[in-house]
Amino acid sequence: MNFLNLGAFIFALSIPIVALLYFLKLKRKEKIISSTMLWNQLIRDTRANAPFQRLKRNILLILQILFLALLVSSLARPFFPAKVRQGKNIILILDASASMQSTDLSQSRFELAKKEALRMITDMREGDKMMVISASARTDVKSSFTGKKDELARVVKSLKAKDTLTNLMDAICLSLSLVKGGEENDIYILSDGAFKKVEDLDTEKANIQFISIGKGGENVGITALDVRKNIASQFDYEVFLSIKNFSENPKELGLELKTEGRLADFRKLALSPGEEKNQIFESFGLQSGLIEASLKLDDDLTVDNTAWTILQRKPQVSVLLVSRGNPFLERAINLDPRTMVSKMSPADFPPSKNYDLTIIDGFSPEKMPSGNCMLINCSSSLIETQGEVEQPVIIDWDHSHPLMRFVDFSEVRLGTCLKFEEPKWATCLVETDKTPLIIAGENEERRIVFIGFDTVKSNWPLRVAFPIFFSNAINWLAPQGEGSSARQWKTGDVVKIYLNSEETEFQVIDPKGNVNGVAISQIGAPLVFKDTEYAGVYRVKGKDLEERFCVNLVSPAESDIKPSSEITIGRKEVVAATGARMMNKEIWRWFALFAFAILIFEWWIFHRRAFI
Amino acid sequence: MAEFLDSSFLKKLELLSILSRKVFKGRIKGERRSLRRGTSVEFADYRNYAIGDDFRYIDWNIYGRLQRLFLKLFEEEEDLFIYILIDVSRSMDFGSPKKIDYGKKIAAALGYIGLAKLDRVSISTFSSKMVSTFPPTRGKGEVFRLFDFLSSLKPHGQTVMKDSLREYVLNTRKAGLAILISDFFDPGGYEDAIKYLMSKRFDIFVLQVLCREELEPNLRGDLRLIDCETDDVREISIGEGTIRAYRGVLRSFCENLRSYCHNRGITYIRTSTQIPFEELILKYLRTGGLIKR
User: Fold this and answer.
1) What is the pLDDT of residues A315-331, one digit of tens each?
2) With a CB-CB cutoff of 8 Å, which residues 95-114 of chain B face chain A?
3) What span, in angstroms and rounded, lies between the C-alpha atoms of A160 and A512?
4) Nearest to B185 among A34, A45, A609 (CB)
5) Measured in whole angstroms, how far is the alpha carbon of residue A507 from the centre of its chain?
6) What pTM value is reported for the model?
7) How far is B250 from chain A (nearest CA, A)?
């Protein structure tokens, strides 16, 4: 025999209580009188005459019957279907993305989500445990499983919405990995549903509920911002903007462009519902610095109304070419206007100063140069060569790598190439039938490209792929020279910037004014910054350096703030609920409590012997 | 004696005498005028001469006028038996002042009046049965003994009037005036007891003595009432309504007793220990017809 609810045995304590009550009598004061004759007469008269007294004996009977009825009812476990939020283990995922900052309701969606979360905390029953997860671009577990309501409430109240996209996949995966097998697990997603479908998840372990927050959505947002070089002019740049109306009403707005805080241009736009318009601002030839594009209108989400970018006009890439002479190579490198090429013969290597990029051609250095480098037809401590291969045939190349954009090796023929093993840190970009040919990767925080053959002894320099490859290589090896896009990221991205500094310790100040200390491993290594939760201009400060980079939302998914009534997780569509599901709410406890109260009342009536 | 009555009060009592509505045959000439035709000096009536009557009582004046012989009749002086019955059950030992003390005082006063008027006074006590008796005594000189007897009375036992008075009636040979002093809180009832007295042709006078605690009980709350006689326990929760109801029951009880007595020609007086004793004797008992000047 098993018991569903062992805790019910606590009610067995009522048995000695009832027994005690049976022997317990109402404490009465003793009074000696001359005769109880008249009092007995009084009792007899009132019993006979007063309707209440006549009823008194019946009242006891009624109460006893009522008590038994309630007791039996409670044993029968009465219930009624009710909406209850229930779950032994509850995981609350709060969407803290940019769209949750929408103010389509009285408060921001995130504040409403927090309120809902607080209400769910209050509804927790004895034995329930809850975990709070904040989902934005990153998933943060804010509170591990706990039943302490005040602690959970404190955590929820401290949550803040971010300017990032929603990465719900990670949050749900994490939640599913944390659910406890064999117990009741509920996962509640408090969100506006403005995220993409979450695929490939087995959601059997837990009951997932989606609580939709938000009602409507009147929003116009910047969905793209870029500065690019004017094709016609080497020195001119143009600003490209994409603006979309995500609401169901036509919108008229102003578009303002500022450079370093000064108004550069202003346009009036009219967008019909769902329309996206591109705007190009030209002739930034002599202007450089911080460019800010902002939409002037009242909508429900303001974070996507402004975007920033930084226009860099100075050549950034200092290239050292260590070669015995390779005119093809020299020409290919000089083609890129960003580069400032210095030549050095192998005998003079190593250089006295640092360069952004070192290209070593046909010379095996004893010591690798600092910074990013390209090694052509040489061996080094990084890559051990094992002889040569005659007449290698190129069989395949990586089409997706940034280095290989628009590069075609089908017509490239080689005489010989070096035989080597592809190291673990590298990706093979071009391979032959016998050995990898070109590899690229990151080793010890620097990027390396290795070309395993003498370019002169091939027809590659005569192919259009040659200059394209080297242009791609400079872009990849010296990313700070990419122009404005090197200083612009999306919220939630990991920022990696190369700083022209001899320091290793820097401070990064975010748009909210928070100061973060960041160190780089060595001079020339990129500065890596992960906390890009807020859109705006970030400042990097060093002792002799002050740089900026921008982080923008620019996400059509987040700017489309129309709330969803359902989300798809795995193969399942989860319809938004009020956060509750219908289930049998048992009320036998109330019956038992009431029965006990009746018992006490019956005892009191019996002993009270009240008269009118 | 001072315990009961002070000397000034005794002086007042000497002016009083106890009234009896019935005339009883007394053996000794007392001060009481008997309705029997006797040989006293007080002319009462005439009757026809019969052979053998005493010639000294022939009224010669009437013979001279009417030529017929008539005999003079004279009032006979007789003594009255006054039986005072006191309830000495434990219920009488209640109240402040105690009912039994009050009853003793009444008995002392009435006994003094009777003795002063050369009536025969007897005092008997009862509870569940007859307890003690002060035998019929005559003369003022017996007053001290009477008072001593009263002083010695101690309350005990339960009230069973029927058995007590039945016993009393069986042991009393001569009828007289019976003064019954009690609270009448007899669970068995008083009716049979009074009937027994009536069967002996007593001239009954009922004096119900109650105390303030019975008339206006100061009882409130959840109480356990204990009968001081029977030790009967009654648990009761008393509020204002209950007190009102109790007064109604008491009133009804007393009214029933009064009615019972009245229907049988018995004088009923209810008194309270709160009524000053002198006022009871000099005013209420006189108004009630038990005492006269």
Assistant:
1) 568 899 999 989 999 99
2) 95, 99
3) 13
4) A34
5) 24
6) 0.48
7) 7
